[in-house]
Amino acid sequence: MSTQTPVRPVESAQGPVEVHRRLPRFAPSGLYVAGIVVGALLAALTTGGFNIALTVVYGAVLGTLAVWLTSRAVEGRRKASDRLVTCLVTTAFVIALVPLVSLVYTVLDKGLERFDSEFFNSSMLGVVGEGGGAYHAILGTLIVTALTTVISVPIGLMTAIYLVEYGSGRLKKAITFLVDVMTGIPSIVAGLFAFALFSIFFGPGIRLGVMGAVALSVLMIPVVVRSAEEVLKLVPNELREASYALGVSKWRTIVKVVLRTSIAGLGTGITLAIARVIGETAPLLVTTGLITSTNMNPFDGRMTTLPVYAFYQLTQPGFPAEPAIARAWTAALVLIILVMALNIVARLISRFFAPKTGR
Amino acid sequence: MTTTSAPPSSPPQRREPAAQKRKGRFGDRLFAGASTGSGILILLVLAGVAVFLISRSIPALTADTADLPNEEGLGAYIGPLIFGTLLAAVIALVVATPLAVGIALYITHYAPRRLAALMGYVMDLLAAIPSVVYGFWGIATLAPALVPFYGWLERNLGFIPLFSGPASVTGRTMLTVGLVLAVMILPIISAISREVFSQAPALHREAALALGATRWEMIRMSVLPYGKSGVIGGAMLGLGRALGETLAVAIVLSASGVVTFDLISSTNPSTIAANIALQFPESSGLNVNVLIASGLALFVITLAVNMLARWVVNRRADFSGAN
Are B152 and B296 contained in the same domain? Predict the structure, then answer.
């Protein structure tokens, strides 16, 4: 776009040559803004006040139309459709940002009300109405997630090693395909699987923290495999060959060379996988259940987790409802903070533990 | 890679002392066994999901009609749920796909390079927000905001069966759910579209520009044909996610087990996943088996959608490898 062809009104002996007329550089954005202003006026006229949604809708339509028609009149059909698509694509992007901003604003607005020390220091034991907190739920989430990580990471990592270093033929193809398919298992189905598995041994009323960990592992393993596989594939073959040439056995090469080289990527992938499962609610709803007191033992009895806690505080607030709903929003805020923190940690890992290969 | 590594590595191995060789072989065998075992375990888990779900839903499949929760048979119970699941997912897909393609095009071909990386990161964050939080947002912000819009739809487009109304006063309708799901699957579709769009061969793009094409003509001629199957595959993965989404639907939708195409009224069909989440904690006996049977139906549907999606995406990979 930077190559601006100057306006050249060319006349030649053979007749009129096609003239490339262009709109000035800032004309499209100016026209678009004008469209939005007219849209705001129109919205104000039709509703008798300022209405942000109508302003945006009218503004986007009018702005796009203004740009398209002007460009069509001045620059011709091809250039006009190019400008039209630019408007549409940019609008699509802005529309997609609206829910994100609105969501973050809503959660911050409502969640900060109970973002106090009591929320982090007390459980719901004996709490009716005001007060109470999510100490037990935060602890439960940390325990279940840690257990999930302990189950998923070895299995996922070894599977990725198999796929990259050992696998061949139909088994490799089958595993790759099924890992992909497994990524799409609905989370509630994973929960039902864990419930069905444990209820065969412990009876139908069973609820355990470890059941939740098993359910989450079904969701986390494929994510770990996928990311670890991508990272291991990036390790240059020369490193492996150099190691073999020194007479190092294959498993030592994998542990000392391949894994050592890719440790940053693996750390990032595993952290993002944890971020993916820490907010899962549906499988925990059917496996870990809900209690009001703190339970530290995932192998005995129900265990409250943060997402389930938030869900029940919002949907079954009891009476009076306001304190419970405020707690629910704070729990949602804590959940978002956890996920964002994990995402940032993942970025930091990939920055600071990156291999020093000089590439 | 094995052919290039074999010649230099095999002679030293042959000269190794016997003891060291055996030790190395033991470690190798252990490691190979453990990694192969993990791979096979994944196959077993997937098979296990199917087997356990089937085994726990057999009591519901064979039960007497009169014992079922609705006393009309399993099909009559699960049917409306499947309808609701598909309806919500299709709305989400119809809304999200064009937007996601627009976003992907904006990030790959329109945004300034420096800004594009940041925007990609923001979209990834959108994907990381837990679904229960989307549910909270849906019921607290989106649903009330849509109420006047639903009133407008009923008044002006009421002749279309989709908007026949009466419009819900809470906004907890099928259309709201579809929009929340659309926001949730937007990052998935746009991430995959972004990937394929950025992989479109630079030579094709430059050739189009060199022939005097405008940016849109270049995209239409070289980027979109290349990325088409990637977009389709991404959309189907998003569909799979929307089909299985639980909490956002459970929180937002006011469901009543009817079959209707009316998207803006307060009586809506529930979805399989939301129904399980809401009913399961209070269920016992045969009801649990019925819910697991509905979960099995959901599993089969999403499995089919995901397999189809992967097949479409992988077919593109084969094609681009030959390109």
Answer: yes
CB contact under 8 A, A281 and B36: no
pLDDT at B90: 93
The model scores a pTM over 0.90:
no
> Taking the CB of residue A201, how many other CB atoms lie within 10 A of it?
7
Give how far the C-alpha of residue A265 lies from the chain's centroid of Cα atoms, to the nearest Å: 18
Kindly state whether A325 is in contact with chain B, defined as any CB-CB distance less than 8 angstroms.
no
A123 close contact with B: CB closer than 8 A: no
A346 contact B CB<8A: no
Catalogue all structural domains in chain A, each as residue range(s) with its CATH number. Answer: 19-112 (no CATH), 120-352 (1.10.3720.10)
A240, A251, A234: which is closest to A350 by C-alpha? A234
Residues in Cβ contact with A295 at an 8 Å cutoff, skipping those fewer than 6 apart: A136, A140, A209, A301, A302, A303, A304
Residue numbers of B between 203 and 232 with CB closer than 8 Å to A: 214-217, 219
Q: Supply the pLDDT for residue B98.
A: 92
CATH of the domain at B206: 1.10.3720.10
Task: Look at residue B317 in the predicted model and tell me its pLDDT.
Answer: 55
User: In chain A, whose CA is at the least distance from the CA of B187?
Assistant: A96
Task: Check pLDDT > 50 for residue A251.
Answer: yes
* Residue B61 C-alpha, separation from nearest chain A C-alpha, in angstroms: 16
Distance, in Å, from the CA atom of B103 to the CA atom of B110, rounded to the nearest integer, reads 10
Domain of residue B32: give its range. Answer: 2-56
Name which of B203, B231, B41, B172 is nearest A171 in CA terms: B41
What is the Cα–Cα distance from A224 to B188, expressed in whole angstroms? 17
For residues A268 and A14, which has the higher predicted lDDT (pLDDT)?
Answer: A268
More confident residue, B20 or A270: A270
User: Could B215 and A310 be called an inter-chain contact, meaning their C-beta atoms sit closer than 8 Å?
Assistant: no
Question: Chain B within 8 Å of A187 (Cβ-Cβ)?
Answer: yes
Indicate if the pLDDT at residue B23 is higher than 80.
Answer: no
Per-residue pLDDT of B227-255, as tens digits, reads 888 888 888 888 988 998 888 899 998 88
Q: Report ipTM for this prediction.
A: 0.83
A193–chain B Cβ distance below 8 A for any pair? yes
* Contact call for A184 and B305, based on CB within 8 A: yes
